[in-house]
Amino acid sequence: MPLLDRIAIDPEVAHGRPTVRGTRMRVGDVLALLAAGANEAEILGDYPYLTADDIKACLEYAAAQADHAILTAS
Description:
Blueprint: E1 7-8, E2 19-20, H1 27-35, H2 40-46, H3 52-66
Antiparallel strand pairs: 1-2
Helix pairs in contact: 1-3
C-alpha cells in the first residue's frame, strides 16, 4: 500500500482534518510530536494503534503539502 493511502480526510472525523486512516489521530498531532523531539519508538509506545509506516505517511503527507509551484520572474 502506498504510504499516502494511510492518510484519510473525512468531514465526519476530526472535523475533516487529515488523520491516520482508521484512527482519530491527526497528521498534525504526529508532526507536533516529532517536532517536539519524540522519536518513533516513543510515539509507537504511547499510541500502540499506530505503526512506523503511519508515521512515515504523516511525514510524506506533510512534505507533499509543503511543496509548491515554482514561481519564475517574467
